Amino acid sequence: MRACLITGYPGFLASRLVEAMMEQNLWDHYGLLVHPLQLETARKKVKHFSNVTLFASDITVEDLYLSDHHRVWMQEHVTHVFHLAALYDLAVPLKAATAVNVIGTEHINQLVRTLPRLERYVFFSTAYVSGERTGLILEEELDRGQSFKNHYEATKFAAEQRVSALSDVPYTIIRPGIVVGHSQTGETVKFDGPYFIMRFLDRVRSLPIPYIGTSQAFFNAVPEDYIIKATLCLAHAPEASQRAFHLTDPNPYKSKDFYLLICRELLGKEPTWTMSSTIMERALSFATIRKLFKVEREALHYFGCMTTYDASGAIAILEKYGITCPDFKDYAPKIVAYYKHHRKDRDKEISVT
């Protein structure tokens, strides 16, 4: 029996990944490492599947809460491991981010090295391990002495360092851009990242709409279905072993144009004036303003990142299998329509403090 082990379930991308794996019948069995607090939710999602085993596990604990019996099963059957469990909050405190993103990854690394049938270890990083760097960022680059905008970036960088040091493990590192909903349905689990734009525009819809700043930076958004297809392809491609890949938009829009497309779709009108990004950032330093607009201050930084991400390595492999990243203008109507239909859904809101 060939089995796949996934962490981070029932999180958004992990859930989508498992669904795609099952649709394609890629493995005989699926082992899901689930935090004890998420176990009941996970049980409900997989109750109709007979080829799924849930392992109550905390990756911040050295033994992962796995019994000897569990470990023997993994050693006998697991061929692929997908490590998605992480704290993705841009405002996450350092201690929590380190425990999950760094120490948790070290524990999964230790587990991976005990699996004799392992064919691939897929680690989900982020394109933003580039931190405060500017200019062109290459896939084969990681440590260039960069600083970071937040603890999320810093700890994902530290985690990726640890994975890329596994010289005896066939790993593949996935570095997505900012993930948005499905390009065909618009569906997403949480309204974060670029959805903060929509939250803001909702609040000011009756006023003259401003642009925020004059930056010429690019905003790199990618739909979740592209991430899933690309990840599963790279997980099986022999030439993807011991390499990192940017799953980013090869033709991103400038932040200003990205904002304009959303504004047209959401409000049916265009911005008419420009607000200083500095003023906006200062305003968001106050909790009352953040809560009013439902926008995290840290999210602003990603609209002014003067970086471009080279994805030539990923593209060279993915194009062989007919996988390409959709153009944002083609799926923006789906993304915005889904938001409009679900914007009052409290389960999709991000808590802003």
How would you sum up this structure, described in words?
There is one protein chain. The model has no long low-confidence stretch (mean pLDDT 94). The relative contact order is 0.13. This protein is α/β, with parallel strands linked by helices. The protein has twelve helices and 15 strands. Helix 4 runs parallel beside helix 5 (151-164) and helix 6 packs across helix 8. InterPro entries: FAR (IPR026055), FAR_NAD-bd (IPR013120), NAD(P)-bd_dom_sf (IPR036291). Residues 6-230 form the Thioester reductase (TE) domain.
- What is the distance, rounded to the nearest whole angstrom, between the alpha carbons of the first and last residues? 47 Å
Counting DSSP H or I runs of 4 or more residues, the number of helices is 12
Main β-sheet, spatial strand arrangement:
3-2-1-4-5-7-12
- H/E element order: EHEHEHEHEEHEEHEEEHEEHEHHEHH
Which CATH architecture of the largest domain? 3-Layer(aba) Sandwich
By CATH, the superfamily of the largest domain comes out as NAD(P)-binding Rossmann-like Domain
CA-based gyration radius: 20 Å
Under CATH, the topology of the largest domain is which? Rossmann fold
- Give the number of DSSP strands: 15
